[in-house]
Amino acid sequence: MMIFLILLLLLIILTTGAALLVVRDPMHGAVNLGVSLLALSILFLVLGAPFVAALEVMLYVGAILVLFLFAIMLLRTSLTTREEPRWRRGFWWPAVLMVLLTAVLILLFSRRPDLLVVIQEIGPGTVGRALFGPYLWLTEAVALLLFAVIAAVLAIHRRDDHDA
Amino acid sequence: MRLFLMALGMLFTTLVLLGVAGFLVFAERRVLGFLQNRLGPNRLGPLGIGQALADALKLMSKENFVPDFADPVLYRAAPVLVAFSALASFAVVPLDHHFSWAGNWNIGLLFILAMSSLNAYGVFLGGWASGNKFSLLGAVRAVAQLVSYELPMGLALLGVVLLSGSLSLNGIVAAQNLPYIVLQPLGFVIFLIAGVAETHRLPFDLPEAESELVAGFNTEYGGMRFGYFFLGEYLGLTLIAVLTALLYLGGWHGPWLPGWIWLLIKTAAVIFVFFWLRATLPRPRYDQLMALGWKVLLPLALFNVLATALAAALWRLA
């Protein structure tokens, strides 16, 4: 039962990921990416990582993809034309890579045929203890990186003010 | 059998919530009427309560069509997404200690925040897919507003999580011997303001400001598709109100009456405050809205988290 759910989610992730390559409208691409990320978060949930699943939706779907959409929205050139999706030149390289990846995965799974899913749930408490325990220095390093980014944004903003 | 009962229960919960949302539309019109010294809809049924039903029938009997210039798939999907995300959030909301679908879920609060991001998608996909300038402007405004106010809201919630040590709504209510409005007054105010902005209710209804943008993101919607947006808005309002009651006002704790009645009373009081705000405050300019979010609420929310963490640490030391 569980394995079917997981396979279904993987199918959704793969189809939406592939659709991302062929759709013509950037907004449709973004929506496909969103569906893919949502399916991924459900996959995390099913595999016993509810905290990561929630963060996936909040951060990736709720914040990062929104930035893409924001740019796409302001770029919609014509409000009336609708075009059919077509196969684009840029499609072929990713397609080749995808076929290769599929081949690798098939090889991998043919060696280990035990598709038994063992799920051990890892709750938010465990994640927090890991982040602020053994991985404290890494967490602090990321915080420092983010601080640098904020400082850079402020600096860029100030220069714009000065120019104006 | 168990699955069947669960499905039946879910259907029942959904119907009750839809009924609540429909009734709130009527209640808002009536309360606004009284606040503006007029009567409001009072003809249909006792006290005019049948107006909710009449509104629903009107919306359902209107023609559903997709405009020629709209993106057909996304245009259809957006209203459903709005109503779905608002409804799904209620799964983690407990009515009482033993009465909820997933009140004990250890990521309950995160689930609600995640669903609110999905809600934002419904709003701006609807605005974008309509293929109308006003809708697009409304959608762009909605995105910026929702992203800007989700941050202070999350940080305000962090104060509550720090104090209670739990992300499940049951755990947070159980930890409140004293309602958190006493320990987190600043967090409460930030959460309420951000909540008004998240549900884009007046005075923060700039995504659909009718005096500038016709109706903003739902300009091109009619009939039941508009109804879904409407339901989503009122369900979101109910959700923010019930969250305020659970997180800051002590949830179902209260003397004499059974717990769930206390929760309903508190929720209704918060909803009344929302109506009151609508009748009282004018709409700010868009840059004022952004400045309030990023320059006032966000630093205050960060300060709130810092102060809460320090106080909690000192409390533990003492």
UniProtKB/TrEMBL annotation, chain B:
Q: Does the keyword Hydrolase apply?
A: no
Membrane-topology descriptor: Multi-pass membrane protein
Residue ranges of the TM segments: 73-95, 107-131, 151-173, 180-197, 226-249, 256-277, 297-317
What GO MF terms are annotated? oxidoreductase activity
The UniProt entry, under InterPro entries, shows: NADH_UbQ_OxRdtase_su1/FPO, NADH_UbQ_OxRdtase_su1_CS
State the EC number(s).
Answer: 7.1.1.-
Say which domain of life the source belongs to: Bacteria
Q: Which UniProt keywords apply?
A: Cell membrane, Membrane, NAD, Oxidoreductase, Quinone, Translocase, Transmembrane, Transmembrane helix, Ubiquinone
Q: Where is this gene product found?
A: Cell membrane; Membrane
Q: Which reaction does it catalyse?
A: a quinone + NADH + 5 H(+)(in) = a quinol + NAD(+) + 4 H(+)(out)
Give the range the annotation lists for the signal sequence.
none
Fetch the NCBIfam families from UniProt. PRK06076.1-2 (NF004741)
Self-association and partners: NDH-1 is composed of 14 different subunits. Subunits NuoA, H, J, K, L, M, N constitute the membrane sector of the complex.
- Protein family (similarity comment): Belongs to the complex I subunit 1 family.
Alphabetical list of HAMAP family matching this protein = NDH1_NuoH
Q: What does this protein do?
A: NDH-1 shuttles electrons from NADH, via FMN and iron-sulfur (Fe-S) centers, to quinones in the respiratory chain. The immediate electron acceptor for the enzyme in this species is believed to be ubiquinone. Couples the redox reaction to proton translocation (for every two electrons transferred, four hydrogen ions are translocated across the cytoplasmic membrane), and thus conserves the redox energy in a proton gradient. This subunit may bind ubiquinone.
Q: What is this protein called?
A: NADH-quinone oxidoreductase subunit H
